[in-house]
Write a structure and sequence with these properties.
Blueprint (H helix, E strand, L loop, with lengths): L1 E10 L2 E11 L4 E5 L6 H8 L7 E6 L2 E2 L9 E4 L11 H11 L4 H14 L15 H13 L5 E5 L7 H16 L3 E5 L3 H7 L2 E6 L2 E7 H4 L6 H10 L1
Parallel strand pairs: 3-8, 3-9, 6-7, 7-8
Antiparallel strand pairs: 1-2, 1-4, 4-5, 9-10
Length: 234
């Protein structure tokens, strides 16, 4: 589903990603972990062809990420995404549907289903300017679900959510995983990653430190947070 082969990305003298290779299988829930500035967002940008590697290859579905057809089955939630404050959540979802050429009753049905999925029934018709950060985050995730994509790329999907919201999003991701979706996420909530992800990779200063099944990474009684701190601190 996703493959990086010897990928390096440089911005002038700065090497943001340094010879990174890993793959994500179809139907897998995968977490890319690292401290701020580790290169996670740069990798996501290369997956989406927002930027291109200096060297190496990035592919999705066996197709180079530079090909537009790769992005036809991807749902993306950006970190700190924004929604125009004068829109309602419902109108925002409808606009996202229009961008995917989903119109009429199909758009209405998808929006209704997504509102239920993200737990926002009863607030979908109020303006975004009245929403909490967590509510905005839920609608951002809802937009990523529009069109029933095979692959979800989620950058901090639980950002701004309270503990109940975090649990609900985890349950939603578990449901999507059970449907066979491939999920690629960045998150600082390592306890949540440990609960829902099959595999994880930890990077620091652009270099891959480990990539393995979560169950293998946290063996010997350690938590994922323990392993993360130990590896990043070196």
């Amino acid at each position: 589903m996703i493959e990086l082969k010897n990928v390096t990305k440089r911005y002038g003298l700065l090497t943001a990603v340094d010879d990174v290779s890993f793959s994500v299988k179809p139907g897998e829930c995968f977490a890319l972990l690292g401290p701020n500035g580790a290169g996670k967002t740069t990798i996501v940008k290369m997956l989406l062809d927002f930027t291109r590697p200096t060297s190496g290859n990035v592919s999705l579905y066996g197709i180079p990420s530079t090909h537009a057809e790769c992005r036809q089955s991807i749902g993306y939630l950006a970190e700190n995404h924004r929604i125009p404050p004068t829109l309602s959540g419902w109108n925002y979802l409808l606009r996202c549907a229009e961008l995917l050429d989903i119109t009429g009753s199909e758009a209405t049905d998808q929006c209704r289903h997504i509102v239920e999925q993200i737990g926002m029934q009863g607030r979908e018709n109020t303006k975004v300017c009245t929403y909490s950060k967590g509510m905005v985050q839920r609608f951002g995730l809802g937009a990523a679900l529009m069109g029933d994509p095979k692959l979800l790329i989620l950058d901090e999907p639980t950002s701004g959510l309270d503990p109940i919201g975090i649990r609900e999003i985890r349950q939603l991701l578990e449901s999507l995983k059970a449907q066979g979706k491939t999920i690629f996420l960045n998150s600082h909530l390592l306890s949540e990653v440990e609960k829902i992800c099959d595999t994880a990779a930890i990077i620091n200063r652009g270099r891959l430190l480990i990539k393995d099944a979560v169950s293998a990474i946290v063996e010997d009684g350690e938590t994922l947070e323990d392993v993360f701190v130990r590896l990043v601190k070196g």
